[in-house]
Specification:
Blueprint: E1 13-17, H1 22-32, E2 36-41, E3 56-58, E4 64-68, H2 69-73, E5 78-82, H3 88-99, E6 103-106, H4 112-115, H5 120-126, E7 131-136, H6 151-157, H7 178-201, E8 206-210, H8 211-217
Parallel strand pairs: 1-2, 1-6, 2-5, 6-7, 7-8
Antiparallel strand pairs: 3-4
Helix pairs in contact: 1-7, 7-8
């Protein structure tokens, strides 16, 4: 953040329980807008993308550090701590942080947060002003809800690969993980709208954001063919 530049989300705290790309992209945008983002990572290894290199960040002497460019491009302007969500102590830490937060963003598999007692219904019962955003591959219900969501698969299922590449060639994946990135951006917009609603009514909202939904939506006019 640039010093002295007014930040529209100053004073908003975001508890970030996401990893890899779609979720971190969303929370990074919120951080860029001035929110205080607290990123929670796994003890020992952290976010999966910390080791997804090369390239890795180099120190002042030109030596590679353990921080990958992938991780750094999606996690700027955040604070970070490690918490073991599988332990009772770790779950208690998350609950305390959630009670002091305006927004919680998570991208675990459907049902994981409920098993830890960290689902939207449980946390919002104690903190009704909380905006709770879940990012998954296929949403919280439906026939594919239990499947893991990957950008490559969603580009295929959502129709994007059918309109990419040569007209007479095979379906082609877009070179950037656009399903993840668009989902992160849609999640950001939804969170901002939910904060507006919260400020007007005192009630937070629950956001169910799915990669497939975002991918189909971003086909725009091509989705009608």
């Amino acid at each position: 953040m640039s010093a002295g530049v007014p930040q529209s989300l100053a004073g908003v705290r975001v508890l970030d329980l996401t990893r890899v790309l779609a979720g971190p992209w969303c929370t990074q945008v919120l951080a860029d807008l001035g929110a205080d983002v607290i990123k929670v990572e796994r003890p020992g290894s952290g976010d999966d993308t910390r080791g997804w290199g090369p390239p890795f960040l180099k120190d002042g002497e030109g030596n590679e550090t353990p921080e990958s460019a992938y991780y750094l491009c999606a996690n700027r302007n955040k604070r970070s701590l490690t918490v073991d969500l599988s332990s009772a102590e770790g779950q208690a830490v998350i609950r305390r942080l959630a009670m002091r937060s305006d927004v919680l963003v998570e991208n675990f598999k459907v049902g994981d947060m409920a098993r830890h007692g960290l689902d939207a219904a449980t946390l919002r019962a104690a903190h009704p002003r909380l905006v709770y955003c879940s990012i998954t591959g296929f949403g919280q219900d439906g026939p594919y809800a239990q499947r893991a969501g990957y950008d490559f698969a969603v580009q295929g299922l959502g129709g994007l690969m059918s309109v990419t590449g040569a007209a007479d060639g095979e379906p082609q994946k877009v070179g950037v993980a656009v399903a993840d990135l668009f989902t992160g951006m849609y999640a950001t917009v939804a969170i901002l709208a939910a904060l507006r609603h919260r400020d007007a009514t005192g009630e937070g909202q629950v956001i169910d954001m799915a990669l497939l939904d975002a991918q189909v939506a971003m086909l725009a006019n091509l989705g009608s063919h």
